[in-house]
Write a structure and sequence with these properties.
The protein is mainly alpha-helical. It has helices at residues 7-29, 57-69, 72-85, 97-112, 115-128, 159-169, 172-189, 225-242, 245-259, 286-302, 308-322, 357-374, 379-403, 406-409, 419-442, 449-469, 485-499, 510-522, 533-548, 553-565, 585-603, 612-628, 651-658, 668-683, 733-736, 743-748; strands at 36-41, 44-48, 132-133, 138-139, 150-152, 199-202, 209-213, 342-345, 350-354, 568-570, 573-574.
Length: 760
Amino acid sequence: MAQEESINQVIERGLNRAESQSLILAKKLENREGVLPRTYENDRLQTVFYDHWVSGFFPGILWLLYENSQNIQFREYAELYTARVEPAKKMKNTHDLGFMLYCSFGQGYRLTKNPHYLNVIKEGSENLLTRWNPKLGVIKSWERKQWQYPVIIDNMMNLEMLCFMTREFSDRTYVKIAETHAQTTLKNHFRTDYSTYHVVSYDTITGIPHTKRTAQGYADYSSWARGQAWGLYGYTMMYRETLNPIYLEQARKIGNFLVSHPRLPEDKVPYWDYDDPQIPNAKRDASAASIMASAFIELSQLDPSNMASIWLATAEKQLRTLSSPEYLAEAGTMGGFIIKHGVGDLRSKNEVDVPLSYGDYYYIEALLRLKKLISKPTGLNERQVWIKQMTRIASPVLENLAAGTLKKNMPFESLSNDSLRRKVSYLEAVGRTICGIAPWLELGPDDTEEGKLRAYYIDLVVKGLRNGLDPESSDYLVFDNHHSQPLVDAAFLAEGVLRAPTQIWKRLDRQTQEWLIKEWKVSRSIKPFESNWLLFASIIEAALLEFTGEYDVKRLNDGVCRFRDEWYKGDAWYGDGKDFHFDYYNSLVIHPMLTGVLRIMKKHGLSGAEFLPIQEKRHSRFAEEMERMISPEGSYPVIGRSITYRFGSFHALADAAFLHLLPKSLNPAQVRCGLTSIIQRQLSQADTFDSAGWLRIGYTGRQIQMSEEYINTGSLYLCMAVFLPLGLSPDDAFWTNPPVEWTARKAWCGANVGADHAIR
C-alpha cells in the first residue's frame, strides 16, 4: 500500500501548481488593458473589469505567490494587475470594496508598504462607509428594488478592511462600524443551529428585518455552502481583530455546525447547498471548501478550546482533497485557474462546476497559512521533547536512589560551608524530582513506548523511596530537626505523592508507607518561618490527612489563613510573609501549594476550603501573568532569589495548565510552546550538566555566583516542576492544539494580544 503523501508535500505541490497556472493566466491577459480573470467556462476564459466584485482576487493571488517564492516576476505581475483595480476606490454603489481593494491593495501594502496602496485603501474605505446606516447598524449590500435595505452574509468579509483602517490610522470609527455590523448580523442572520440566511433586508423605519431570503442558495430556509463559509471566516477574522469573545464563540458555533453536519462529505468539500435534495448527486463547491479551510486554520490558532485540533484536521483534509487530481487543475489546463468544481450561482445557472478566482485565492491563502503553521513542532513532538528532557534530568537521581547509590554518586556543589547542608541535599533532590515527575507517573504504565517508559520510572520511584526511607539503608534520607531544610523537601515530596496517589502511594509496600508517614510526622518538630514555609507544613499535613485521616489542625491551617487573611497584595500576588519580595516564590511555592492544600481540604469537607474558588481565580490570573513573562526568544526575567532553579520558576504556570486552571482566553498550546522554548533554550547551554548527567548550579549553564548560600546540587531539581503538564494525557488540548505563539512573541510580531487587566 502506497504511503500517504505528507501534508508538507501536499502544500508544496499545491503551491507549485498555483505558481505555474497563475503565470499562464498572468501572461495571457497582460496586454489586455484593464482586464482581470473571473472564471474558465465552456472552454473560454471569462474576464471582468475593476467594477466586478471578484476583480481583486487575482492580484491578491499574485501577491501571495510572491510572498511565498520571492520571485520578482510575481511581484511585477501583482503590481500590474493591482493597478487595474484602482478605479474601484471611487465606487459607492457596492459593499464589495473589501474584496476588491483589500485582497489586492491590502496584500500589496502588507508586503511592500507602498504609501500609494494605503491611500487607495483609505479612499475606498471612505466610500464603503457611504453605505453605512447607523440607525440600522449595518452596511448596505445591494441596490435591488425587491428589498428595502438588503445585507448579505458575504458582507462580513468587507469588515477586515475597516479593521485595518483602525490599526493603520488609530481611528476607532472604522472598527466600531465593523463591530456594530458584525453584532447586528450575528443577531439577525443566524438560525438557532448557527446556519445563516443569505440575505436579510431591514425595514428602514423600524430597523427590524422585514424578510430573510436567499439569492444564491437552494431555498430561503437552506444553508448555502459559501454563505456558511463567509460567516465562519468573517467571525474568525473579527475575533482576531478585536479579541471580542462573542465573535470567537460565534465562529466556534458556526464551525461546529459545519464539521458536525450530516451532509458534509467525508472529503470535507461541501455540496453547494447543505439542503439540496439532490444530495449526494448535487454539485460540490470547491470555493466554499477553500474559504472554510483558510478560516479553520486561523480559528485553530485563535480558539483555546480542545476544538482547535478539530478545526485544523478539517482544514488539512479539505486541502488534501482540493489538492487531489479530482480538484487540482492539471498543469496548463483551465486557462490558468487552479481549483476545479466551484459553484458561483447555481440558481441562475451561472458559473456552475467551474474554477473561480476567489476559490483559487482562498486555496492559496489556506496553503500558506498551513505552511507557516506546520513549520512549528506539533504538540506530540513537543511532548517527546519534554519527556526526553524530564527523564534526562530525573534519571541520575532516581536510578541512583533505586540502586542505593545516591549518596555515593551525587555530587555536592554549593557556596555554603554548612556541613549539614550536604546531609539534607539528597532529600532535596529526591523530593523535588518526585514533585515534578509525579503527574506523568500517575498516568500509569501501558503498552505504548511512553507507557513502558513510565513503568520504568514508577519502579525506580517505588524502589528508591524504600531505600530512602529505610533507616538501615545507606541512602536513608534526613527528615529530622538537626536542620530546618528537611521541612521544605518533605513538603515537596508530599506534594509529589499527592499528585500520584495511585502510582506512588498505593504501590509502596505497607512498611514503606509507615516509614514515610513517620518521617512526615518527624518534620513537625521543625518550626516554619513566617513566610512561604508555612505552606510546607500545610502540604505535609494535607498528605497525612489524605493518606491517614489524621492531621495537625494548626499546621494545616496556619499557612492557608496567613495567605488568605494577611499576605495578599493584589492582582494574584502574595507577600512572602508580611513583606512583598519581587521573585518567583509565588510560583515556586505559594500558588501551587496553597491550591493543593485547599483542594485536599475541600475533598475532606474541612472548614476553610470555601476559599478555594478565590485562590483558583488568583492562581489562574498568576498563570496568565507568568505566560506573559516568556520573552519572544524564549527567555524570562532574571529576577529575585533562587533564579538557579531555572524553569522551575514556572511551577505555577505548569500547575495551572495541569489542573486546567488556565484562563479561558489563554490557549494551552501557547503555554506549551512558550515553555518548550524556555526548556530547550536553558538546557542547550554548555555546562548545564556534568559528565555524569547531574545538574550544575546556574541559570543558563554553570553560574555558581548567581546562587544563594542555601542552594546546592539537590536544590536545583525543583526545575522538574515545569514538567507537570506531562500528567495530562496526550489527547488533552494542551498537547493536541496546534502550535500557537505565546503572548510576547505575538505582540512583538505585531499581533493584537489585547489589553491586560488586574483581577479584583
